[in-house]
């Protein structure tokens, strides 16, 4: 990993961000519905998290991986209960998606290698719609029968106050529906119209096969597990995940009259090694591949996708034991300074210690280390 990382140019919230893995949201939802029913510590965490969110001492953004995981829950009542807690904590705010973060890191990395002034186009790290997690602005849009924007007509016909009230409710209903999903009795009709939430797993299955392929190769060549495994994982990660994106950014640069990005090998290596979210993914995959007993699943892919952005760009991450172990035991990642609580009580105490941060949003390359324990 590079000595100096090159961060995506994003506008960060003025308060620290806390990423909660789905398993913890499930326990918080359980505690919210039936106090005392969740494991020890979640009562305290729910109280501290709701208070921190309401006082703007912490933000709890979601990710696209949350959408995938929650949509896979079959019980509509459980999905609705999770949506209740999400609404309390996040207000349905989402982190920018992994592909978009990667593209911004690529653009910033190229500018750094070529010695260009950074492009300070202000792109929010957190957006107010699930669309933001998938590279879209999101939100409701009123159109006419031909698909043209009809918002001004609707505003004039409804009156400004009624129109704004309607739009707020429509956006709220849409955001909640993305997580709560349909009721059981609605699914047959929706499926007849193309509803297929399991389709989101197809891309993950392809990427899972890629990691299983490496596991098989390591099984036949175990010496790689004792040697430069991180270099091997890194090369595969860049080639499989990001070469197309790099070529697209480079092509766009050339079309805009900017120099083509074709540096010597050592500069190219530094460029790859300076991408923060990619380095998190590489470290986690290296930890998993180092263990010959590890059996890869789609949950690993989802977790790594979520952690690559959350660990790099949030101040605290509360995840499951396996992901936490991979992050905490990757010494090269400790430079991020991200707080990794082991228990809900630890996170509750950390949240209680966060002061109010009501300053305007500012552009910073990376959050300061707000934790006293990076591991």
**Number of separate helices:** 16
Unreliable runs: 359-375
Structural class: mainly alpha
Distance between the termini: 18 Å
What is the share of helical residues?
A: 55-70%
Shape: globular
What is the N-to-C order of secondary-structure elements (H for helix, E for strand)?
EEHHHHEHEEHHHHHHHHHEHHE
List the strand order in the largest sheet. 4-1-7
Rg, please? 22 Å
Q: Write down how many β-strands occur, each being a DSSP E stretch of 2 or more residues.
A: 7
Main sheet record = 3 strands, mixed
Average pLDDT confidence is: 88
The quaternary organization reads as: single chain
Strand content: under 5%
Description of the molecule:
With 375 residues, the protein is mostly helical. 55% of the residues lie in helices and 5% in strands. It has 16 helices and seven strands. Strands 4-1-7 form a three-stranded mixed sheet, with no helix packed on it. It has a two-stranded parallel sheet with strand order 2-6. Helix 1 packs across helix 4, helix 5 packs across helix 11 and helix 5 packs across helix 12. The radius of gyration is 22 Å and the shape is globular. 37% of the residues are buried.
